From TrEMBL:
PANTHER family linked: PUTATIVE (AFU_ORTHOLOGUE AFUA_6G01830)-RELATED
Gene3D superfamilies listed in its UniProt record: Vaccinia Virus protein VP39
SUPFAM superfamilies the record matches: S-adenosyl-L-methionine-dependent methyltransferases
GO molecular function terms listed in the Swiss-Prot or TrEMBL record: O-methyltransferase activity
Keywords on record: Methyltransferase, S-adenosyl-L-methionine, Transferase
Superkingdom of this protein's organism: Bacteria
UniProt keyword S-adenosyl-L-methionine present: yes
Gene Ontology biological-process entries: methylation
Protein name: O-methyltransferase
Amino acid sequence: MIHLDAPTSALLDRLERYAADNDAHAAERSQKMLNLERPTAELVYWLVASSKRSRVLEIGTSNGYSAIWLANALKLNSTDKVISIERDPAKAVAARENLKAASLTQRVEVIEGDATAICESLAGPFDCIFFDADRVSAPAQLAVLLPKLTPDALLLADNALSHPGEIAGYIAAVEATGEFDTLTVPVGKGLHIARRRNAP
């Protein structure tokens, strides 16, 4: 178990309860928070913290649950911030409110809009990308981000086991580069991990 400070832990517990209740009653998928399961969030935290990532891009903010985990992992090693992309304005507002409650407004920048277009506009470099939005557009996002990745870049993608058909294009795109060692961990809905093979 990952131990965070008491206020952050309490906030994450509250967000988990809210998401579970909201998603159980939401009429449409777009209304769901679709947050990471706690074991997956802890694994993402551990991967980012232990590999000393400093420039993290998250695609799919939702209400900021995973951004809180990423930012807490990042601040162990770096003064840089997480850039997180969210296309739903209401979710972006909720994310900013939750990040403020977590005292992380200076550590996470939430950008609203189309993720692929935003990825094209970002300068980079990034040493970690977390794909957690719609899986169908992930290959296009990967294509524009590849030139902006560091030699030891770490790629993470959720829902590798829960939505294998939807994520297949992304996984194939990663493998087609010939640059990454990959692994799918059966935690939560399945976390796909890829690390550039030419890492120093």
